[in-house]
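Continuing from the previous page of notes. For each protein in this section, the sequence appears first, followed by its structure tokens. Read the first protein now.
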Amino acid sequence: MATVSPKRASRIYDVLGRTYDLAERFEGRAKERGLDLLEVQPGHRVLEVGPGTGRVLQHLAGVVGSEGLAVGIDLSPVMARLSRDRAGVPVVVGDARALPFADRSFDRIFCSYVLDLIAPAEFPTVLSEFFRVLRPGGVLVNVSLTEGTTGPSRAFVAAWKALYRVSPTLCAGCRPIRLRDAAGAAGFDPVTAETIVEWAVPSEIVTATRPNRREA
């Protein structure tokens, strides 16, 4: 299934702007579970990839406090501005395929409904960037639209794929993915995955740790 280009994805989310908060009714529980698994603590350095309107980034900034750091990066200039204004922390315009951060900069990375815009062939590039900027022992939590696990969620995904084939833009560029195996192949260990279905919309939550071991 073809994916949208970074330029087109940026335009889609520039247009969506604040209306993207409406997606919370379908994504809220999965994001909350992802944040529980992220286990952010005061003093942590946290990166959110694709913060959207800044709802989650604002929460992360409050948890890490003045001794920590919360940073966002978004492909869409409009979303970057919205999240910066809401969360009151640095948000840069950039691409997850080439993160503008030094090696081992963060204790945690949170990414939700971003990689389902990216072609599976590019997962290794993105995940290697996540691995690079995480400290040993650091944790990545990724939340994405995924394949259905129940009758209603399978029906939803089938309809979503049909609509995507007609117009990826109407689907905001997103299509269902599975990321667990790709995260393991990128060097994360352990990697776990679970699925939450909300209003028939299935979301996969992958938790992946950069091993805390010496590198050759």
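Done with the first. The second protein uses the same format. Note its length before scrolling.
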Amino acid sequence: MSILPRRLERIKSVLNCRMQNLTVLIEDVNKPHNLSAILRTCDAAGVFEANFISKTNAVKTFNSTAQGSQKWVRLNNHEKTIMAISDLKNKGFKLYGTTLNSESADYRNFDYCQNTCFVLGAEKWGLSNELISMVDQSIFIPMRGMVQSLNVSVAASILLFEAIRQRKDKGILPTSGEGLNIDEYHKTLFEWCYPELALIYKKSAKEYPKLNDQGEFDPIENN
């Protein structure tokens, strides 16, 4: 069993640009359309995984807006705010929360070239006070209209692509897989190339087979 060369080339070209040090944390955004749009933007921006806070443990993103992007961006669901914040800070992320308060600053004033997490809230109410108190920096997107807020998926797009712009300007956007650690890269490559087999290996608690440069593997040798 092997993957078609063109398919393998496409998968590698996308995986080579993925970044573990850029992500989002979405709090209580329940509209599938918005969640799907955020996930699609994450895929387009090269974000490796996205984080959600949802007590239901059911992130509803799988509608036509996602365009299948849920297959290519890992979803981390956190039931409690403190768990999400602790996990991200332990990984070294700096959290930028989108909110209007006395400490908020223009989002364009900051450097997003290192471990960056953009924190966005619900469609109507924004971030909870609990989460606002835990972010490292409150930011806002300047507006000139009567309405002083953007759709959450639009805001996510603006912020993520500002981070991409900054990283491109500094020449640090990954192009050859350097945005992921090597173990994560090979694990994800197998899961993307052989998703059904990956599920079987997970259930049996076996390590994934090693792939050669052509995306081929010997299941007997790897058992």
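What the second structure shows: Residues 20-169 form a domain with the Alpha/beta knot fold (CATH 3.40.1280.10). Helices lie at 5-15, 32-45, 81-90, 129-132, 152-169, 182-193, 195-203. We return to this in next week's lecture.
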